[in-house]
Structures are given as structure tokens and as C-alpha cells.
Amino acid sequence: MDVGIPAQVFTTRASMPYEVRVCGAAPGLVAGGDGLSYHVADGLDALTWADIVFIPGYRFPDREDPPGAVLDALVAARDRGARLAAISTGAFALAATGLLDGKRATTHWHYTRSLAAKHPLVRVDENVLFVDEGAVLTSAGAASGLDLCLHILRGDLGVAASNHAARRLVAAPYRSGGQAQYVPRSVPEPLGERFAATREWALHRLGEPLTLDALARHAAVSPRTFSRRFADDTGYTPMQWVMRARVDMARELLERSERGVEQIAADVGLGTGANLRQHFQQILGTTPSEYRRTFAQGE
């Protein structure tokens, strides 16, 4: 999964501006776990031109480091300007390069303490799905690697392309990097699916007033319980999530339509263009007009 997920998201197809290569320490057959093997077409020379390098997880990362040639190639790729993204225990390989020193990072929850012990200069965050430090990115287990890939795609090509990829893969279009990896409970609570239904219900009503009471009422729990569990599930308070969903909808309208900012603000439930501009700046650090110039189709 760690190898296949980036290949599926950044697929080499006419609709996507990427070329995907799978490389290893040397070309040829690479034995993997669980009875799987990979015929790797490229060696480390592929890292001399790659824009993004994904590092999959591997077994026993706390006991052994990748070959020195691999670490050197990763450092050289970063020095050249490539982004390095580790999935699951691939964070150990990235940490072994020293490129994570002084930076936040995560890995699979089972290995977070081992990563912190082996690489004490890395600020390990065990409670998130992924961490974006700009040039170096890390994610938790294999499934959160999909969240990281969609996050990168959203930054490269815009929210419409990311949503299209999520639909193609039948995946959630957006999960916050700050969402909890793993929340142990002695008794399973059947609220996750109910809250997912409430989020889906809200996504179809972003142009309408959405209050905490209305969301909790749909989920059939108290506002207090809804707020607490919603934050556990998404990494955001309910109203923060609604605001980000509205901004994401505005992003897609800016990319795919010629509607003015005032009309888009009304369509997504933000009322006025000034309100949309304010939240756009707070969440994305840019303006709707700048965003449209960057991501509008055909430009």
C-alpha cells in the first residue's frame, strides 16, 4: 500500500501532469513483506530528476537503517529542491538523513516512541495523520499516506483535482492532518458512522445556515458530546470544519466557474465577498483572486 498509494494518486495518465517511477537501491526484483515482491525498473538515478520522492514504510525500522547510498541520494534530491514525503515507517529513513532534525514529524502510532528514541532531534507528534513541513512531509499508517498524497495534490493542482482523485479512488476528499491517528477505547462507540453521515449532510447544505445545534441534532447527540467527538474524529471543532468546507467549495467554484467573488460567497454560505476574503486569507494565506489566477482551468 505504501508503494501503491502514491502511484495511484499521482498516476501517469493524460489528465495528470505527473510521471510516476518506482525506484530502489538498484533496479530488479525487491522482496517485500506479506508475500509481495516488486520488479523495480529504476535505480537511485531516478532521484536526480524527481520533483517529489515518496519513501514507503519498511519492517523493523527501529533496528536498521537503509543503505548509505539511499540516504545520500535522498539528501542530494533534497539539496536539489525535491520534496521528500515518507509514509508510515518510511519516516525512519527520512530521519536517518538528518533532514527531519528540529522539525515536526509523525509515523505509525506503533513506532512513534521508537522514532523519538532513535532520533531525539526530531519533534515526533504521535497524534496526527500527517505533518507538512514544506520540503519534508511524513504520514502515519498506510491509509493516512492517501491523505498526505491528496494534501500534496491539492497544493499542486488545486482542490478540484484533489477531489477528482479522491472520487476516483473512492476516498474521503479531505481529512485534516491534525486528525487523531488512533483513539483507544475500552468500549467501541457507534458514533463514527453517524458523524460521517452528518458531515455528508452538512456538505450538501453549505449554502444554508449551519449551527452547532443543527449538526448535533442531526447526529442525535448533545452539542457537547458532538463537539468533543467531532474534534476527535476530524481534528477540528464542528464550526472550524464547516468553515473549511465552505472555503474548499469556494476554491472549487473559483477554479471551475466564472462566478464573481460575491456570488461565490453567497453560494457557499459565507454571505459577503469581504467575509470570503477574510477566511480565505486566514486559512490559505492568499486571496480569492490570486487563487483563481493560480488554479483556474485553462490557465
From TrEMBL:
**Protein species of origin:** Actinacidiphila paucisporea
The protein's matches in Pfam families, at most eight in alphabetical order, are given as: DJ-1_PfpI, HTH_18
Q: Which SUPFAM superfamilies match?
A: Class I glutamine amidotransferase-like (SSF52317), Homeodomain-like (SSF46689)
* Name this polypeptide is given: Transcriptional regulator, AraC family with amidase-like domain
Give the molecular function GO annotations: DNA-binding transcription factor activity; sequence-specific DNA binding
Q: Which residues form the HTH araC/xylS-type domain?
A: 196-294
Instruction: Cite the CDD domains for this sequence.
Output: GATase1_AraC_1
Keyword Transcription present in the record's keywords: the answer is yes
Q: Which UniProt keywords apply?
A: DNA-binding, Transcription, Transcription regulation
